[in-house]
Amino acid sequence: MSELARELGIAVTLLYKWRKEYEEFGEGSFPGNGKLKLTPGLFPLRLSLILLLL
User: Residue 11's domain spans which residues?
Assistant: First the structure.
């Protein structure tokens, strides 16, 4: 990990943080554009809310 962090020019702790987030949130870990991460439990709730508002 240390070598990869050096190659990328980032702190090794950031790599560990990214790995932990990916393990916790999977594909939703890095949504980008300021969007919130959705845990598997929150997805159905958000979908229900969207459908209610239609």
Answer: 2-53
- How many C-alpha atoms does 37 have within 13 Å on its Cβ side? 11
Domain count, the chain: 1
Give pLDDT tens digits for 11-36: 889 888 888 888 887 777 776 666 66
Which residue has 């990869």 as its token pair? 4
The CA distance from 40 to 22, in Å, is 13
Contact 12, 5 (CB under 8 A): yes
For residue 38, give the nearest of 28, 30, 48 by alpha carbon: 28
How far lies 19's CA from each of 24, 29, 37, 52, in Å? Answer: 9, 9, 15, 35
